[in-house]
């Protein structure tokens, strides 16, 4: 491990969100420029997740849940529910607007919620691509299983298999569950890699315990041994380095400051497409 990144924790009223990227010590791991861990939480009957309509440019958002559900709506007219094990992959490209809310049938009910929201910076040549959205049910994702380990390849290629999620650059994103005593060598197939322990107790190379909810960035080219003490869960993420620096402001990602400024002006003037069925508008932040 070359770096351990502690989360910044935000209490959103009924549940916590831990933000790992971007961070002052590390702006990205592979193409990942944003990493939020939501929950785990038991949401009360009066607590709903209501992420109001907001814009994105220059990135792909990736939603992956272990518990709970959310309804996604976007300015392309998509409206569907994501459940545990599914993947929502939304390519913002030149610009898209979306909302994420607790499904109607779950409102007013106590329920658990736990998942990840990440952003992947698009390659420069695709930053202005047409926006798109893809939903991949859990059953469509490849699983590698054996020796007390179950690995679901969420996106990209890992452990000899590839996810059906269409990525635009080399990507590594795997959900790994380990039984007590299970061991796994992390391959060096990708230039940049990080481990994010979610639950349980995990050790690296028998000498270093990985604290949960901290991002452990691995040294390139190494083959570290991961060992579980008790049932454990970890995310493996990374891929090829970015093809240049990225500017991140609010929900906008771009290799160009000027493009960020244009997106700010477009949102303020309400020139982005609207999400059908949504009426709320979030003003541009002051800073």
Oligomer: single chain
Structural class: mainly beta
Whole-number radius of gyration?
19 Å
Mean model confidence by pLDDT: 96
Describe this protein's structure.
Helices cover 4% and strands 48% of the residues. It has one helix and 25 strands. It has one helix spanning 257-268, and strands at residues 3-5, 8-11, 16-21, 32-43, 50-56, 59-67, 70-74, 79-82, 87-91, 96-101, 111-121, 132-136, 143-146, 149-158, 161-162, 171-178, 183-185, 192-199, 202-204, 208-210, 215-217, 225-228, 232-239, 247-249, 252-254. Strands 1, 13, 14, 15, 16, 18, 21 and 23 form an eight-stranded antiparallel β-sheet that branches. The protein has a seven-stranded antiparallel β-sheet with strand order 2-3-4-11-6-9-12, with no helix packed on it. Strands 5-10-7-8 form a four-stranded antiparallel β-sheet, with no helix packed on it. Strand 24 and strand 25 (252-254) form a beta hairpin.
Keywords:
7-stranded antiparallel beta sheet, 8-stranded antiparallel beta sheet, mainly beta, 1 helix, 287 residues
What is the compact description of this entry?
4% of the residues lie in helices and 48% in strands. The protein has one helix at 257-268; strands at residues 3-5, 8-11, 16-21, 32-43, 50-56, 59-67, 70-74, 79-82, 87-91, 96-101, 111-121, 132-136, 143-146, 149-158, 161-162, 171-178, 183-185, 192-199, 202-204, 208-210, 215-217, 225-228, 232-239, 247-249, 252-254.
């Amino acid at each position: 491990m070359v770096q351990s990144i502690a989360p910044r924790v935000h209490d959103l009223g009924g549940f916590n969100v831990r933000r790992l990227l971007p961070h002052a010590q590390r702006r990205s791991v592979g193409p990942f420029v944003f990493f939020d861990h939501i929950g785990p939480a038991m949401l009360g009957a009066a607590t709903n997740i209501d992420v109001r309509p907001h814009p994105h440019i220059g990135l792909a958002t990736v939603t992956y849940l272990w518990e709970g559900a959310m309804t996604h709506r976007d300015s392309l007219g998509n409206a569907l529910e994501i459940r545990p094990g599914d993947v929502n992959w939304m390519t913002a490209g030149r610009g898209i607007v979306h909302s994420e809310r607790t499904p109607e049938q779950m409102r007013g009910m106590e329920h658990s919620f736990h998942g990840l929201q990440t952003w992947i910076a698009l390659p420069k040549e695709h930053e202005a691509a047409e926006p798109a959205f893809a939903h991949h049910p859990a059953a469509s994702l490849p699983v590698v299983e054996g020796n007390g380990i179950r690995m679901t390849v969420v996106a990209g290629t890992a452990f000899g298999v590839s996810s059906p999620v269409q990525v635009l650059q080399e990507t590594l994103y795997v959900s790994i569950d380990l039984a007590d005593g299970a061991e796994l060598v992390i391959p060096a197939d990708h230039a940049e890699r990080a481990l994010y322990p979610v639950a349980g107790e995990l050790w690296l190379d028998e000498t270093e315990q990985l604290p949960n909810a901290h991002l452990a960035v691995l040294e390139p080219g190494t083959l570290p041994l991961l060992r579980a003490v008790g049932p454990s869960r970890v995310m493996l993420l990374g891929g090829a380095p970015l093809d240049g620096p990225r500017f991140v402001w609010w929900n906008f990602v771009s290799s160009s400051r000027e493009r960020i400024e244009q997106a700010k002006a477009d949102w303020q003037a309400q020139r982005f497409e609207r999400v059908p069925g949504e009426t709320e508008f979030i003003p541009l932040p002051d800073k």
